[in-house]
Write a structure and sequence with these properties.
three-stranded antiparallel β-sheet; Beta-clip-like
């Protein structure tokens, strides 16, 4: 009989041998999450959980349902920044941060913010400089049908996109 570790146990193991590290830019003070190992597509980078569900989004939340927004734990996950060419995805159904394209050691771990928020609390102009950059980031609600074809979305956001088409 095999035993599947629960999220708490896996997170504790990751904290004792971290698979990622937070770095702070000394000029801007912005924090980012960087890989300490190679990840391949579909690898689980981290398990996560949440303790509180909010009715409204904040700049640190991901959306799990209508008027249901959560801050992910462990807290280092809040340092995963946005990219229009992300290498990771927050699967809120399985509660896993999953690799979606190869990640090398010392590479920043990024995700596409609209993949996990319908209507963001703090929209912004993206400066990721990727060829895929879509410019203004405001949430999945504001993406064109063509743009939605290029990204992976949480189950809830996929449902919202389907209902809006």
């Amino acid at each position: 009989m095999s035993i599947i570790p629960n999220a708490q146990q896996t997170i504790a193991e990751e904290q004792s041998e971290p698979l990622s590290e937070v770095r702070t830019d000394v000029t801007t003070g912005h924090r980012s999450l960087f890989s300490k190992k190679v990840f391949h597509p579909d690898d689980v980078i981290s398990h996560f959980y949440w303790e509180e569900v909010r009715n409204t989004p904040t700049y640190l939340t991901v959306q799990i349902g209508e008027d249901r927004h959560v801050e992910l734990l462990p807290t280092y996950l809040e340092c995963a920044n946005h990219s229009c060419h992300p290498n990771a995805f927050f699967d809120t159904t399985k509660k896993q941060l999953v690799c979606i394209r190869p990640i090398q050691v010392a590479e920043e771990i990024t995700f596409f913010y609209p993949s996990a928020e319908w209507d963001m609390d703090q929209p912004f102009d993206c400066h990721c400089k990727s060829a895929e950059c879509i410019g203004h980031i405001a949430g999945a609600k504001y993406l064109s049908p063509d743009q939605t074809q290029h990204y992976r979305f949480t189950d809830f956001i996929r449902q919202k996109l389907h209902a809006s088409n």
